[in-house]
Amino acid sequence: MTKLADWFETSNDATKVLLRLGARPDVISLAGGLPAPELFPGDAVADAFAHVARDQAAVSLQYGPAEGIEPLREMIAEQMRAEGATSVTAENVIITTGSQQGLALIGQTLLNKDDRVALDEPTFLGALDAWRPCEPGYTAIDWSGNAPGFKPSDDTGAMPKFAYCLPNFRNPTGETMALEQRRALVAAAQRDDVVVIEDNPYGALRYEGVQPASLLSLADNGGEGPYDGHVIYTGTVSKTLAPALRVGWMVVPQRLVDGIIISKQGLDLCTSPLTQYAALRLIETGVEAETATRARDLYRGRRDAMLAALEKDMPAGVTWTRPEGGMFVWLTLPEGAESRDIFDRAAAAGVAIVPGDVFYAMSPSRNTIRLNFTNVPEPVIAEAVSRLAGVIADRARDAA
Ligand SMILES: Cc1ncc(COP(=O)(O)O)c(C=O)c1O
Fold this sequence. Notes:
Aspartate Aminotransferase, domain 1, 2 domains, disordered N terminus, binds pyridoxal-5'-phosphate
């Protein structure tokens, strides 16, 4: 079990350096996790905001319910039922200020100091940031043996407070959890009475292959709603519409709903009703679905461009993931190579990357790199990968 303080100073430093690098016009950034700005439906967003401010001012400009506006919660519940979680009702849905806030609310509601969170490393840095104030410890989900499991604490015998998973196109590795793993994880959650967070910001960005069932649908017993299973689901419009809307949602088991709403109320009273009504309109009028379709088409080409460039240019001994969706490819350098060293050399060559060690809460792997492929045009991706490959080959020669 490792405390966050052991690594967060270094990740903070990396974030600062990355922000400075990203601002340099001569640097190609494969470091961020940003949507392509050319996809943003600016006119439709302007029309939606104008419409709800003008025609629905009484509700869109007023404070709203802490749990979110009813019609949006109804619409999300319907979407979740259509995706197989058949007992989810609007009562289970809480609208959040981005799904990041959902993660923070779960921590604020469930975690006490020294409680443990179970997860797979590497993992989403923002989740670790969200829980840092709660000072939890971390433990790996145990995938060894026939069934995954959660280890009781050596000190107290307590099970982890919850587990955190990114089943679709995990940030940072791009990997997807297979159906049998999903089934086994939900079975373990039910057996050990541990709630699992299914964080799914990238699910709609699938470029090939078949979508396995969500953890939420596997945890749903299909009975009368509201849903009261062992999975909390977090979703967002950030990757299918625009991150600036800051509209996300959580599907929360009924027994936890009141606690989360109280936390949400204490944090910001409510997510802006203006943006909630605008997001609802953008979903109802098909703008979100159309933007997601354009995103899939654009990003599929960019992913292919990155994979082709890696294949063409990377020296022997470097391996990488081949994501079916999402925004990231994860590179593993030969044993002994330091990605921090590559980071500095790549920056000098005009390419920003993220050293993989910042995505770990326990045992950082120092020879890994996260690459983003969504924010840069295909020819520029090819140029960036070629420069990075040159840097990695030079570094290997220097070390030999
Ligand atoms: C895995 C993961 N979860 C959650 C978020 C937060 O998204 P948002 O708060 O914009 O909904 C992100 C953002 O990139 C992410 O990568």
